[in-house]
User: Fold Methanogenesis marker 16 metalloprotein from Methanocaldococcus villosus KIN24-T80.
Amino acid sequence: MKIVTVDKLKKMIRNNEDISEIDIVTTATCGIMSGTMAVFHIPFNDKFRKAEKIYLDGYKGFVGPCPNEYLGKVDAVFFRNGFLFKRLVKGEELEAKVLADNKYYNNIITINDLQKAEMIGTRMCFKNYSAITNLSDKPVKTIFHRLPLKRGEASFSGCGEFNPLENMVIKNEKDLIGKRALLNGADALILGFGTRASLEKPNLMISADMKEMDSYYLGGFLTGDGEEVFNTVAIAVDVKQHIEALKKLDKDIALPLVNIFGREIIDISNYGEVWENVDLRPKLHKDRCKNCKNCLAEEYCPTMAIKKINGEIKISKDCFGCGICSICPHGVFEIKLGSICGIPITCRQSDRKRALDLAKELKKRLEKSFIF
Ligand code: SF4
Ligand code: SF4
Assistant:
């Protein structure tokens, strides 16, 4: 059984090499996936009749659906809380707080105390994205950018030729139901299409145990509309079954540029324009740092990857390669993000580095035991 990662396959196609010996390609994507929720079963030390409100380290969840009357346990759903999910998966202690019978009860928990911690993505791996710009003269707050999006700037999402759904020929939702995947490093199950999916514009509903996840692959991402969740998904694709889709390269995958107001299409470009000859991570020029009182890069980094410790700037592995740190007025961070239809990209909301890391991880696991 010959297995290759998606980047290797695309390189072979670009070089006109023979791919007929390959059986499986591991594809992957990483980006903001707004429809990410987590279902927790949270224990408390006291018995109460029924929870009315629930919080984890100040984040508000939604009680239910099960009532758990007089059990001192709460089923709850949380969503849009990427930083919370990452901390939980890391194994950090969190304060659980519940309002029941007009009284608050507290408990300190870690993920190991939760009998169930399941992530369900209601809209993952979205195949058809658009790049966004602003044709007005007024900067606008948006989920598509960390900073107010100005005229002459653009942002985009999507891992292009690496995305699992770009590499599959999907004729029926049933072909996907029950298929295995990796979600943030955990063995995951595809439940079918996600919300707003169609055969032309598919996305996936995927579920996995958060206790098995690797915190590197998920996290929070701050946008102009608050906190979001980013995830990484990898899926093995059978070459014979999906050969036509697998042959597609970035340049063959359309990326329309739309105006934020009304979303009318201004022009149609492709993923080659935004992913070729760009940097996946910023270069750090520490020598240029002026040690400003307020570090703009630290303040606006969407994943909180930048820390100024004793006057020294550091980037952690939480970096997503979004490019916002170019805001530093002294050029400490250098990253080439490219442009679309002549408009410079100033915020990237997908991360090909993490996607490739998970595609490699999936290849390793498949080679150890073929379970997909
Ligand atoms: S804004 Fe730039 S120069 Fe100022 S402290 Fe931050 S990294 Fe250093
Ligand atoms: S590219 Fe810069 S701003 Fe973006 S996540 Fe990395 S360090 Fe933060």
Notes: The radius of gyration is 22 Å. Helices lie at 6-14, 82-90, 239-246, 271-275, 296-300, 352-368. The chain has a mean pLDDT of 96.
